[in-house]
Amino acid sequence: MEDLETIFALSSGSGAAGVAVIRVSGDAVGTVLDRMVPGSAPQPRVATLRTIRDPESSEVLDQGIVLFMPGPKSFTGEDCLELHVHGGRAVTRAVLNALEKVPGLRVADAGEFTRRAFERGRMDLTSVEGLGELVAAETEAQRKLALRVASGALEKIYLDMRGDIVEARAFLESQIDFSDEDDVAEIDTGPVRQKIDSVRQRIAALLSGAPAGRVIREGFRVVLAGAPNVGKSSLLNYLAGREAAIVAVEAGTTRDIVEVRLELNGQLVLLQDVAGIREAAGAVEAEGIRRAREALLGADLVIALESADAPFPRGALDSVIGTVLKVWAKNDISAEPNDSVMKHEMSISVKSGVGLAGLTARLASAAADAAVGIDSVAVHLRHVGWLSAADMKLAGALSYLSRDEWEFGADCLRAATDELDVLLGRIGVEDVLDVIFSRFCIGK
Q1: What are the structural domains, with CATH classification, of the chain?
Q2: Is this prediction's pTM over 0.85?
Q3: In this structure, are strands 258-264 and 48-53 parallel, antiparallel, or unpaired?
Q4: pLDDT class for 253, splitting at 50, 70, 90?
Q5: Where on the phi/psi map is residue 252: left (φ > 0), alpha (ψ -120 to 50), or beta?
Q6: Residue 313 has what DSSP assignment?
Q7: Is 426 helix (H, G, I), strand (E, B) or coil?
Q8: Is the peptide bond before 311 cis (omega within 30 degrees of 0)?
Q9: Phi and psi of 87, rounded to 5°?
Q10: Mean confidence (pLDDT) of the chain
Q11: Which of 291, 311, 241, 292 has its CA nearest to residue 269?
Q12: What one-character-per-residue DSSP string does 219-256 give?
C-alpha cells in the first residue's frame, strides 16, 4: 500500500475540558516524537508523562501523557501517537499549531483515521458503520446496537454465511472438476442444499429485523394530527418538557413542521407537530397542510386528536400506513359524546393533566414494540438491497441444482458471495465510502 501523509487532529471534544486527546497517525510519528517530545523514546503502549515542546523554538507548551503505538498493531495499522494534554483552549490550540510546523503533517479529514484502519484491514465495513453510529448515538438503544455492530457481531454473521456459501460452491466445483462426465448426475447435493437453506434462513431473519433497526437508528416517527386549534402544539410542548411550539388562540398558528427529539425508555422518538388540516386556508397555510399530509404518510404512529370545537378532518387518515391512536383532547372542556364518529382510545387534557401519563406510557410502549425483533444486531437499511440480491442468487442456485445444472448453480453461489463481499467492504464500495466516512467527526 502506498505511503500516505501523516495526519493529526483533536480526537476529544472541542471546547474547554480537563484533558484533550490529540491523535497523530503515519510515518512521521517518529519525527513528531523527536521534535516535540525530545529525550528517550517512550516505551510502546505505555503511557508516559513528558514535556511537550514547540518543534521550532523548543518552547514548553505543556506537560502531558504521551502514548506511542507502533504499527501495524494500532487502530489505523500505522504508527500512532496520542498526546493527552490539558484541555484548555489555549493549550490545545498551541499543540495543534505546533504539529502543523512538523514537516509531512496535515490536519486529518473527517473519519480519516477510521478510513485508514479500514483500508489496512483493521476493520471491515460493517464495523466502520457501527463505530460511526456509536459516536453519534443519542439513546441507550442506539448505543447498545452500535456497540454490538462496531465490535464485529454483524461481520461475524456475514463471514459465517459467506463461509457456508464458499464451502457449498467448493463442493460443487470439486465434483464437477473430478467426476467423469457420466457420473455428474450422481452428485449428492443434499448437504449443499442444506447449507444454502441455512444461509437463506439467516438472511430472512436479518431482513425481518431491518425495520426495527431503522426505528432504533433513525427514531420512531410520531405525528400529532388534527384540525387547527385542537391542541397539538400544547401536547407537543408537554411531551417535550419545553416550549418547542407556539401556542395561540388563533387557529392555524403552526405553518411548518415542528420536530422534537425525545428519549423514552431508551428509544429515540421523533415527535412532529404539523399544521392543522382544514379546507379553507391561505397559500402559506396550504403549503403547511401539504407538508402535514406528507408527514402522515411517513409516520410510524399518528396521534389523531379531536375535540368538541375541532372535529377531526374527514379523509385525513385515508392514506396513513402507520398505526393510528385516536385521542379525545380538551376533556376538561367537553367529554367525548356518545355518538362520536371516531371512537377514541384515550381521553386527555393538557390543561388539567388528565390522561397525559397514560398517553406518554402508550407512546413509549409503541416505540419499544416497533424495535422488537432484534436478537443481537440489526442490519442497516443500506444492507437490505445486497442481502436481498444474495438471497435471490441463492434461490437461483437451488433452482439450478433441482435441474442438475451444477455449473450454473456454482455460478449463482459465486455471485451470492460477491454480494456479501460488498457488505464487508471487500469489493465495489468506492461509491459509498466517501458518504460513510463523511459522517464521522474530525479526529475519528
Answers
A1: 6-123 (3.30.1360.120), 128-215+384-424 (1.20.120.430), 219-370 (3.40.50.300)
A2: no
A3: unpaired
A4: very low
A5: left
A6: P
A7: coil
A8: no
A9: -90, 15
A10: 84
A11: 241
A12: -EEEEEE-STTSSHHHHHHHHHTS--S---SSTT---S
